[in-house]
Amino acid sequence: MLRTESPGALSLREIARRAGVSHGAPRRHFPTHLSLLSAIARSGFADLSERISGALNAAPDTPRERIAALSRAYLSFATTERGMFELMFRHDLLRSDYLGLRDAALPLFRLLVGLVAAASPEPSPQVVAGAIWAGLHGTAQLWNWGSLTLATGATDPAPFVDALLTAHLGRQP
Fold first, then answer.
1. b/e per residue, 143-165, with b = 16+ CB within 10 A?
2. How far apart are alpha carbons 95 and 102 in whole angstroms?
3. At 7, is the secondary structure helix, strand, or coil?
4. Rounded Cα–Cα distance for residues 45 and 17 (Å)
5. Which residues lie below 8 Å from residue 75, measured CB to CB, with a gap of 6+?
6. Nearest by Cα to 99 from 48, 32, 2
7. Separation between Cα atoms, residue 140 and residue 100, nearest integer Å
8. 51 to each of 9, 55, 94, 137, how far by Cα in Å?
9. Alpha carbon of 2 to those of 11, 33, 100, 133, 172: distances in Å?
10. How far is Cα 45 from Cα 53, in angstroms, rounded to an integer?
11. 3-class SS at 60?
12. Span 119-156, pLDDT tens digits
């Protein structure tokens, strides 16, 4: 459903209908709508982690190239799994932390912090990683909304990764 509709369409009743079960059946496993959405979002973080792991396994072994690979995988996920991406970062889900959803998201950020620390320990790797993540997330959202294409004429979001890394890590030597 997330590939064809917005996360707002994910009601317990509609999921049950499409699964061919009674409308009350999902309540046996997910007592609230929030718990269902949190479980789906956790699976999204697991999928994103797998994509990033695959990208890092194929990346050259320099910190900057690994940050670029992580960034491209993040952006690719965000633009190809738009509904899931939107669901994963819903503030109400993350704020509620149902099913430990924040804990599902934090390992990716910690990975980015470690890569930034290896690439450029000054200034604070957490701050630089936060700025890169904010830039990636903003790029993904603006791309998904069509705003970057409208403003820049770009047909591919990938070049924005290089611009972000240059802005936050400096030019590649």
1. bbeeebeeeeeeeebeebbeebb
2. 8
3. helix
4. 26
5. 136, 139, 140, 143, 157, 158, 160, 161
6. 32
7. 24
8. 26, 6, 21, 16
9. 12, 15, 21, 23, 38
10. 12
11. coil
12. 987 779 999 999 999 999 999 999 999 999 999 999 99
Backbone torsions φ then ψ of 169, nearest 5 degrees: -120, -5
**The token pair that represents 79 in the structure block:** 């633009």
The three-class DSSP label of residue 155 is coil
Give residue 28's pLDDT. 80
Residues in the chain: 173
Of 58, 65, 86, whose CA–CA distance to 143 is shortest? 86
Tell me the pTM: 0.86
Distance of alpha carbon 124 from alpha carbon 84, whole angstroms: 31
Q: What is the pLDDT of residues 54-82, one digit of tens each?
A: 999 999 989 999 999 999 999 999 999 99
Tokens of 123: 């200034």
And the tokens for 42? 């956790």
Token pair for 149: 């294409």
